[in-house]
Design goal:
With 191 residues, the chain is mainly β. The chain has no helices and 13 strands. Helix content is 0%, strand content 55%.
Length: 191
């Protein structure tokens, strides 16, 4: 059968003729079966992967033509610094199965967009699907101060020393961020 033949059963009649004799016919049933194969489907078909993080993609396998074996899943064309964990989807009589494919980006991965190939391979069968993978910069934040500069005048104070003993004066300063005020506190000690 050619590659475009549809699976199914058909009755074929063969007729033979010759000069001077009656025609003879016979029939048989021809059954065209689907060859063993697999089909892959990815969910989602596009994923975002942060640098230093990972993402999980569901790989669903449909087995056809009586194939019931394991399917090993690999990823081709990954950018530098990006890797995929090994994955095998176990075979079974049901014909279908799915598993999570985990793809990770190391700290040195370069942000960008790449179309990679997810390939499933079994005994004599193979199928591939495309995944659009976006490697995104890691989350970050910035700080901004307003005002960027602050001038605090030196506090004025006077000290009266007692006639005996020791005296110390400690100054502290704090800024109240809620109303943009600066407070200065002083503490005196005698000993």
């Amino acid at each position: 059968a050619g590659t475009g033949a549809a699976p199914g059963a058909s009755t074929i009649t063969v007729r033979g003729t010759a000069a001077g004799v009656s025609a003879a016919t016979t029939s048989f049933t021809l059954t065209v079966t689907q060859p063993p194969g697999i089909r892959l489907a990815l969910t989602p078909a596009a994923a975002t992967l942060p640098v230093g993080g990972s993402v999980a993609v569901t790989v669903a396998v449909t087995r056809e033509g009586g194939y019931a074996g394991d399917v090993a899943v690999t990823v081709e064309g990954l950018p530098a610094g990006v890797s995929a964990q090994p994955l095998t989807i176990a075979g079974g009589a049901g014909g279908a199965g799915s598993a999570q494919l985990v793809i990770s980006a190391g700290a040195g991965a370069v942000p960008g967009v790449a179309t990679v190939t997810v390939r499933g391979t079994g005994s004599g069968v193979s199928h591939a699907a495309s995944l659009v993978l976006t490697v995104a910069p890691p989350p970050s934040f910035t700080l901004a101060l307003t005002p960027a500069a602050l001038v605090v005048p030196a506090p004025g104070y006077s000290v009266v020393r007692p006639s005996s003993g020791h005296f110390g004066l400690t100054f502290g300063m704090n800024r109240d961020g809620r109303n943009d005020q600066v407070g200065i506190a002083a503490m005196a000690q005698w000993w």
